[in-house]
Amino acid sequence: MRFKSSLLLITLAAAMVLGSCGNSKKSVSSTTGWAYNSPDHGGFEYRAGYEQETGPGLVFIEGGTFIMGQVEEDVMREWNNVPRRVTVPSFYMDESEVRNVDYREYLYWINRVFADYPEVYRKALPDTLVWRRPMAYNEPLVENYFRHPAYSEYPVVGVNWLQANDFCSWRTDRVNELILVDAGVLELDVNQQNENNFDTEAYLLGQYDGIEGRRPMRDLDPNKDTRRVRADDGMLLPRYRLPTEAEWEYAALGLVGNSYEERLTNRRIYPWDGHIVRNASKDERGNMMANFVRGSGDYMGMAGSLNDGGDVTVPVKSYYPNDYGLYCMAGNVNEWVADVYRPLSFADTEEFSPFRGNVFETKVLDEEGMVVDKDEFGEIRYREETDEDILDRPNYRSADNRNFRDGDAVSNIASGEGWTEADTNTGTMYAGSTGPMGSLISDRSRVYKGGGWRDRAFWLSPGNRRYLDEREARDDLGFRCAMTRVGPPQAAR
Question: From start to end of 77-130, where are the E strands?
Answer without folding.
Answer: 84-88, 91-94
